[in-house]
Amino acid sequence: MSVNVETRVDAPGSAEYAEAAWDLKERIREREGVLKQRRTFFVDAYRRAEDHLLFEEDDLVGFASVRRDGYILFLAVAPERRGEGYGKRLVAAALQDHDSISCHARATNEDALSFYEHLGFEIQRRITGYYEDGGDAYYLRLGDGATLRERFADFFRRSVVGE
Fold first, then answer.
1. Chain centroid, CA 109 distance in Å
2. Structural domains of the chain, ranges and CATH numbers in brackets
3. What's the whole-model pTM score?
4. Beta-carbon neighbour count of residue 33 at 10 Å?
5. 74-118 pLDDT, tens per residue?
């Protein structure tokens, strides 16, 4: 059975899908103990970002909130949909408008770190006590200012070779 995946965007200033994104983020937090934020922080950051969302029918299965400087504030994929390329699609959407993109990942979140490194992100530094609960983070970056065509060719070459 083929599943139709629809891409939607909440532009900065819009929060049409913020509630669905919050619900997905909270489901992941309850299950995995990551993506811990206060609701007011999340909604404010979501509203200021460009949010790329992936829907199967009317179910949100993944989203990425990206600031105008290319920083990924949130990247979440429903646990039952991981490994299907949705995270890669969201990172590719973020790359469309930026020479490089960056993010933080909890130092103990091995799944996230493995995902980002698989896509070619490089750890730039470790930040002690980055999270409210005192947890450490890694700051990661992808991109070197190459042209869009070069970045996509390299991105998809790594994705195909690594699978």
1. 14
2. 5-162 (3.40.630.30)
3. 0.84
4. 11
5. 999 999 999 999 999 999 999 998 889 999 999 999 999 999 999
